[in-house]
Structure formats: structure tokens, C-alpha cells
């Protein structure tokens, strides 16, 4: 539980933010660092593909009602919440308002969703397949949702060329990972590859926050806005945990499936969301745009770790 609630990734991200504040990368060095970040993101999605067992995923797809329910929470209900939150943009500012919208469009987590489902004695196999499917479909669905919901007022410009970037930088490495899984699968599953996982995300954060520091956009962010984002994240997580439980009960899912729906349907992936944001958006505004997702990630881990332990202690 300590490893989940005190996430090493958050430590790295906070370190990257502090480093960007004190020593932001700029000029030609920033260009080279962005190229290195692109390579790291491609390596990350290559590992995602190499780790996913195609046979187990196809076998798990038979439980289609469970997966459709989780996908509906991730890519339908969450975006509706994002739309409902847009009036808050007048207080938060345009950059954070875009970040709140983007937060609701990214896939579900994989590692923590499965871990919490396991702790709570839920359907672990179903959680693995649903969370993995969410991330695979998110490579396409997240950019589509961004174009549909974030470009209508002209504050965000995303054209169809983003799909070429997604295909070459995210999808192609993922497919190569799947094809080479018989050769590299065992290596990809080792703990040592966490260096690539956490390193690529840390690089995205450092690059984005450096751009924000160089552009001087952080003067517009106050402590009350950060506190408000923390409280808002807690409210969203609590709402989604309650609503996913209610819907799962109404659809007559068993206890194990209800738990998988709650933990897969209530969370958003920092590991997938940040690299995709770097590919889709870029620019100085990226540092503001990813801030809500970074805060939401830690809040969901803290709340879900407590809730998973609570479910674990209940009598079956």
C-alpha cells in the first residue's frame, strides 16, 4: 500500500518541476531535449506493446459487458464531467481549464487499477484487460475527443496531422512491441524498464515546465488555484467511485466485476496522458494543461488506496 500511495513517479515529477523552475532548459538545448523526449515516449509505448499479452487480452475480451461499461465511464461520462467543468475556466484561467478538459479525455490507468482491484478482492483479470484496452483505444479516442471538445472555441488548435504524429510516435512503437514480444517480452516485464516509464514522463514534465518558465506563464497561478484543483480532484474521484458502484449494481454485475468497474472507471492515466499531451499539444501552455492531470493522479492514488483497503476488510 505504501508503494501505491507514495508514488515514486510523483517524487520524480516534483523534482522535475523544481529543476525546471531553477534551471529551465532553453534555446537550442531545449530543442535537443524535446527530440530526446520524443524518443523516450516512443520507447515507452514500445514497452507497453511488448508487455501486453495478446492471447490473454483476446481471451479476456469475452467479458464484453464489463469492458464496455468501463470504457463508457472513461470515454463518455468523464468527458461529460469535463464539459460541465468548463465554466470554471473564468476563475482558473484558460490554460488550467483546458487541462481540466484534457484530464477527462485520457485513458484509465493500468498498474494502479489492477493493483487496487487485487487488494479489494475484485476481478483482476477483467481489470487487466479493461485497463489495457482503454490505453490501446485511447491512442485514437483521446485525440478524437480533443479535436471534438477542445478546439471549438479556437483556444486550442489541433488538426488531422496529429494522427500522423500519434501513429508514428505512439501506435507504431506499440505495434512493434507486440510483434517483437516473443523476443523482448521477458525483458520488457522486468522492473529495470521502469527507468524508461518514469524517465520519459519526467522528461515530458521537465520540458513542459521549462517552456512555461521561459514564457513566464507561471505568474498567473496562485496557491488558492492549486488548492482548488486538489479539492476538485477529490470530489471527482469520490463521485466516480460512487457512480460506478451504483451503475454496476443496477446492471447486476457480481462483486468482483463491480470492484473492477469502480477502480478502472474512476481513474485517469498520467503515464499515458502526459506523453500523449506532448504529442498532441506542445508549446509553453503544455505546462498549465498537464497540471490538473498531475494533481488528479496523486489524489486518486491516495483515495483509492484507502478505499481498496476498506473493501478488502469487508466480509464477502
From TrEMBL:
<dbReference type="InterPro" id="IPR016833">
    <property type="entry name" value="Put_Na-Bile_cotransptr"/>
</dbReference>
<feature type="transmembrane region" description="Helical">
    <location>
        <begin position="91"/>
        <end position="110"/>
    </location>
</feature>
<keyword id="KW-0472">Membrane</keyword>
<dbReference type="GO" id="GO:0005886">
    <property type="term" value="C:plasma membrane"/>
</dbReference>
<feature type="transmembrane region" description="Helical">
    <location>
        <begin position="122"/>
        <end position="150"/>
    </location>
</feature>
<feature type="transmembrane region" description="Helical">
    <location>
        <begin position="201"/>
        <end position="221"/>
    </location>
</feature>
<feature type="transmembrane region" description="Helical">
    <location>
        <begin position="227"/>
        <end position="248"/>
    </location>
</feature>
<feature type="transmembrane region" description="Helical">
    <location>
        <begin position="170"/>
        <end position="189"/>
    </location>
</feature>
<dbReference type="InterPro" id="IPR038770">
    <property type="entry name" value="Na+/solute_symporter_sf"/>
</dbReference>
<feature type="transmembrane region" description="Helical">
    <location>
        <begin position="66"/>
        <end position="85"/>
    </location>
</feature>
<keyword id="KW-0812">Transmembrane</keyword>
<feature type="transmembrane region" description="Helical">
    <location>
        <begin position="39"/>
        <end position="54"/>
    </location>
</feature>
<dbReference type="Pfam" id="PF13593">
    <property type="entry name" value="SBF_like"/>
</dbReference>
<feature type="transmembrane region" description="Helical">
    <location>
        <begin position="269"/>
        <end position="295"/>
    </location>
</feature>
<protein>
    <recommendedName>
        <fullName>Sodium Bile acid symporter family protein</fullName>
    </recommendedName>
</protein>
<keyword id="KW-1133">Transmembrane helix</keyword>
Amino acid at each position: 500500500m505504501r508503494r501505491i500511495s507514495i508514488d515514486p513517479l510523483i517524487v520524480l515529477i516534483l523534482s522535475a518541476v523544481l529543476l525546471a523552475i531553477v534551471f529551465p532548459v532553453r534555446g537550442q538545448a531545449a530543442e535537443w531535449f524535446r527530440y530526446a523526449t520524443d524518443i523516450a515516449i516512443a520507447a515507452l509505448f514500445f514497452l507497453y506493446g511488448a508487455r501486453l499479452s495478446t492471447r490473454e487480452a483476446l481471451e479476456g475480451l469475452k467479458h464484453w459487458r464489463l469492458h464496455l461499461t468501463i470504457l463508457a465511464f472513461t470515454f463518455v461520462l468523464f468527458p461529460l464531467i469535463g464539459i460541465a467543468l468548463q465554466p470554471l475556466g473564468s476563475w482558473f484561467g484558460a490554460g488550467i481549464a483546458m487541462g481540466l478538459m484534457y484530464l477527462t479525455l485520457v485513458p484509465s490507468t493500468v498498474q494502479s487499477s489492477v493493483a487496487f482491484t487485487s487488494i479489494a478482492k475484485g476481478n483482476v483479470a477483467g481489470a487487466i484487460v479493461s485497463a489495457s484496452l482503454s490505453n490501446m483505444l485511447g491512442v485514437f479516442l483521446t485525440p478524437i475527443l480533443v479535436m471534438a471538445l477542445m478546439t471549438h472555441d479556437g483556444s486550442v488548435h489541433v488538426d488531422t496531422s496529429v494522427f500522423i504524429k500519434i501513429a508514428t510516435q505512439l501506435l507504431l512503437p506499440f505495434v512493434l512491441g507486440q510483434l517483437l514480444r516473443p523476443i523482448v517480452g521477458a525483458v520488457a516485464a522486468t522492473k529495470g524498464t521502469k527507468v524508461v516509464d518514469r524517465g520519459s514522463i519526467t522528461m515530458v514534465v521537465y520540458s513542459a515546465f521549462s517552456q512555461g518558465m521561459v514564457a513566464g506563464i507561471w505568474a498567473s497561478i496562485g496557491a488558492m488555484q492549486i488548492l482548488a484543483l486538489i479539492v476538485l480532484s477529490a470530489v471527482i474521484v469520490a463521485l466516480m467511485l460512487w457512480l460506478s458502484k451504483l451503475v454496476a449494481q443496477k446492471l447486476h454485475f457480481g462483486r468482483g466485476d463491480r470492484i473492477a468497474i469502480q477502480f478502472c472507471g474512476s481513474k485517469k492515466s498520467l503515464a499515458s496522458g502526459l506523453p500523449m499531451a506532448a504529442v498532441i499539444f506542445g508549446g509553453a501552455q503544455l505546462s498549465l494543461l498537464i497540471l490538473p492531470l498531475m494533481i488528479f493522479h496523486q489524489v486518486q492514488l491516495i483515495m483509492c488506496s484507502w478505499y481498496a483497503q476498506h473493501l478488502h476488510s469487508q466480509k464477502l
